[in-house]
Amino acid sequence: MEVNQNNIEFIIHRGSHQIGGNCVELATRNARILIDCGLPLDYDEQDVETQNEIRENAQKWLQNCDAVFLSHYHADHYGLLNEAPQGTKVYVTKETAELMKISGMFGEDLTEYLDIHPIEDTVTVKDFRVTKFDVDHSAFGACAFLFEVCGKRILYSGDIRLHGKKGVLYKNLPQNVDFLFLEGTNLGRGVRQKTETAIENEFVKQFSSNPDSLHLVWCSSQNIDRIVALYRACVRTNRVLGVDPYAAYALELAHQNRESIPNKKSPSLEIYFPWSFTNWMIEKDRQLVLDLRRGAIKLDQTDLPVNPSKYVLLYRPKLIGDLSRYISKTKVCLTNSIWAQYWEQDKSEINRLKAWIEDKPELRQKLSDIHTSGHADVASLQKIVEHVQPKRIIPIHTEHSESFSTLFPKDTVLEVADEVCYSMDDPTIWKSTQSFEDLDLGFYMTHVIPDFEHIVITVFFKNPGVSPRIMLTNNTKWYEWTDERTVSITLSKTPVVIGGDESEIPAEAIEKAKEWVVLNYEVLMKHWDGETDSLTMLKNLKKI
Length: 544
Ligand SMILES: [Zn+2]
Fold this sequence. Notes:
Rossmann fold; 3 domains
């Protein structure tokens, strides 16, 4: 897309109205970068055709981009990076780079063909000067990014929270930025989030009130804060925390950055080596397994059924097959320490785990949830905005972008749609990268002028830009509303009704709209030289 000199354009490819799957593009005349390239959370539930389409779109976005900035290593932010052309430059924090390395050993190795650059502080990519700011999130090494470009300062929050152990980091975020892309995962959920200390206390209660059981806790191996809370609860209840090699490795990395994080040398931590998983690992990287074993206490899995009250195991549904060889006759308490939606996913390993639980009603004491979100609650979002003082807020990673204006009445919220290209000089000017049918214009317009129940939109000229003429009706009166917005859509001579039931719109309004469209279509076609861009045309039109 051609960008005017000194202008910056942005597109949220995905994430303006959904949680996860983030991908944002920033472009100047000379450079184009992507921020995150995430897999939609419901990807696995889609049919093959939709999945292919998701991948093809990512390939298009990643093609010829100067760099990708990855905020953290969660699949809904990095999961489509494997669609990037070989050698694509990817900027991450040092911690994320390390996680990518170990994850490569356990699965797909992105570091093999991508050009990964850990950012210490600030980096320059063509027009963009980019600074990373560490933030608290449920992923190790998560960060926000500040983009300084063509005289504008743009802050991308990434996933962020204030109720974790490092919540105070938000105070380091830059202030008085022009734009803030702010995540809003917890909008609409209306709960104040518990702290990790409260979670630790809940674990203690859970282990103490079921003293003769073996406790299995499902939590992400990357959620270091949570593993620390779990470890502390184990120490307080005289139990040993057993972790698998992947979690052990993540802890080892985190321990190098912060000594207070337990590692294989900590007194109440042991590593268990699930049989098939370990064999698979040895095949991939024998040395890694040997390194992990050195100086570690190996958890004797045959002791699990003998002394269940001695252990808490950090596990993932994938490991249950291995574990059940030892614990199929042992009393267990299962605790989910993950986002509730993961438990509901239709994945084979989760279904297998559920079947395993169903099979053992006499052995299962409890299935409980002990969790707090990796994302800011409403009060925390307000604190972030109060600190950052942005000129404009752009909601992202949320199902409730419409709540932002209520939440930030004093701030200018710019609610945008996916796949629409906005100018940062004047975000009221936008172009669609999609066909008109795909563009959720009705939603956008209803939000801009919420008093109107119906919108009749008419469109009058084609590429390189089309300016929509919009007719609005509130059932009693009709209004014309023009705005210097540009959309690349196909020429239409008939009014299109969106944002309501056509049958409820007064016939008079529709007739008027048709009249208007035909009139202006003729006028425009007469004056359009076929090349002038739509904005210039609109300006000329005013003179006509
Ligand atoms: Zn995340």
